[in-house]
Write a structure and sequence with these properties.
Elements lengths: L2 H17 L5 H15 L9 H20 L2 H4 L3 H18 L18 H19 L6 H19 L1 H14 L17 H16 L8 H9 L12 H9 L7 H25 L6 H6 L3 H32 L17 H5 L4 H20 L7 H20 L3 H31 L3 H27 L3 H11 L4
């Protein structure tokens, strides 16, 4: 989000919280979130795509709620009113196509023809009508929905498939394929939306899904402070805040939310943006020849990505707090942790916790259930590498993100084995505060540099360029 976007959203949230307090708070968050996903969606060269991708988000969210909600909640009459309100907001945004270009402020480009949107509404309505004839959704139905969500995620994240999708959409809209690119199609927030939908379907399959109406569910999935950069909240935690009475802002809450918001703005737009001027990227990776300056730009990137990401998290937490929603923390001084395991327990914590709950723990239990289970070290290697590879793929299915995932997966495994082998000796040696401090500081420095070198794969687009940077870091002169 740009600075002006953040300030507008913060001002709107503050105005609502101080003026209306709890009256219509959920409706405000729902309608604001619907508008925001269109407003923040970046413009794309494919005709109409920057309007239809937010609309597709809404359709997916509604369909997921419909197949996961219990029968009584699904049949409530108020659902029709809620869906009509959402459709009305989308139609209002679509009708801004008839305004002069200078007044089309809520969509990235001129909205498409109204008839296409109405057709999408009709198809969605007919789909819901057909689904409503089913008294229950079988386990296989939920599994297919889960696979389709994952498939859509891969379609966007794998460059070859993304290029095919761009070509298909250009052909569909009657555009030339001359300048087709994998960057033609950008779906704002879908990485976070997909994880929330997968979490919902998996919890439904395991019987842990709470009963929520369509307003609560849509607000949870597209909640505007956390839509673009997280954190990844859990539905059961979010609805507790949503359902709790909100008496409005008092001075203490206002001070706390404002402090968090200002801290986030300072991190992102002062520190991170300043570091971005010298941080590692594809351009300066090939231009810098000095080992010293190569370390400088690698360090700059390590801190830039931290202050950028944690800054956005602080902004999200601050705006949400203005509305009485306490989103989960996402960072806890990760660069001050003495080992890689603790680093990942404190970096993008909601993502780590999500993978631990929905992949690492289930796959570990499955491996242990084998009649002849594999050895503990091999199990740890397999699960940690697989988990980190998936986290890498979540950012993008490329060779560099694969290498980044492998780097951290193998690093976690080596730390686990090293810790088991040396724990007793380290405890016996570190018998004084000075020795304990030396052990802790050395661990922090080693972990930070391991992570910083790993960021090389994350920051660059080519394994060849990444390897050249690493060689420059460690050459003799």
């Amino acid at each position: 989000m740009a600075l002006e976007n953040i300030l507008i959203l913060a001002a709107a949230s503050l105005l609502w919280a101080t003026t209306f307090r709890n009256h219509g708070r959920t409706w405000f968050m729902l309608i604001a979130s619907v508008v925001v996903i269109f407003w923040l969606q970046p413009a794309v060269p494919i005709r109409g795509a920057d309007f239809f991708t937010p609309l597709a988000t809404l359709v997916l969210v509604v369909l997921t709620w419909f197949i996961t909600a219990d029968d009584a909640t699904r049949k409530q009459r108020k659902n029709i009113i809620i869906l009509l309100v959402i459709a009305s907001v989308v139609l209002f945004l679509n009708l801004t196509r008839f305004l002069p270009a200078d007044f089309q402020l809520l969509t990235p480009s001129r909205p498409p023809q109204l008839t296409t949107t109405l057709i999408i509404f009709l198809v969605t309505g007919l789909t819901l009508l057909v689904l409503s004839r089913l008294t229950r959704f079988s386990a296989s139905f939920l599994t297919v929905s889960l696979l389709l969500t994952i498939g859509l995620f891969l379609l966007i994240k794998i460059p070859t498939l993304s290029l095919w999708l761009s070509s298909f959409l250009r052909t569909l809209s009657g555009q030339s394929l001359t300048n087709v690119s994998i960057n033609d199609f950008r779906w704002l927030g879908f990485s976070y939306v997909a994880f929330r939908l997968i979490h919902t379907i998996r919890d439904k399959q395991s019987g842990r899904f709470p009963s929520v109406d369509v307003v609560e569910f849509i607000t949870y999935v597209i909640f505007f402070p956390a839509f673009t950069a997280g954190p990844i909240d859990r539905l059961e935690r979010f609805i507790k805040d949503l359902r709790a009475p909100f008496a409005g802002l008092n001075l203490e809450n206002f001070y706390s939310a404002g402090q968090r918001l200002l801290l986030g703005l300072f991190k992102k737009f002062v520190i991170a943006d300043a570091l971005a001027l010298i941080a590692l990227n594809d351009s300066n990776a090939t231009q810098v020849t000095s080992t010293f300056w190569m370390w400088v730009i690698v360090y700059a990137y390590a801190f830039q990505i931290y202050f950028d990401f944690s800054g956005y998290t602080d902004v999200a937490l601050g705006i949400a707090q203005l509305l009485g929603i306490k989103l989960p923390e996402n960072f806890a001084s990760p660069y001050l942790k003495p080992n890689l395991t603790q680093f990942w327990n404190n970096w993008h914590m909601t993502l780590t916790q999500w993978f631990r709950a929905y992949f690492f723990n289930p796959i570990t239990r499955w491996l242990r259930s084998w009649e002849k289970p594999m050895s503990i070290p091999m199990m740890i290697l397999l699960t940690q590498v697989a988990t980190m590879l998936l986290i890498g793929f979540w950012h993008g299915v490329t060779w560099n993100f694969t290498l980044w995932g492998l780097w951290h997966g193998l690093g976690l495994f080596i730390h686990n084995r090293w810790n088991d082998a040396t724990k007793a000796k380290a405890a016996a040696w570190a018998t004084t505060p000075a020795k304990q401090a030396a052990l802790n500081i050395s661990g922090i420095l080693l972990t930070f540099h391991f992570v910083a070198i790993g960021w090389i794969f994350f920051a660059l687009s080519s394994p060849v360029t990444s390897w050249q940077v690493i060689l420059k870091l460690f050459r003799a002169h």
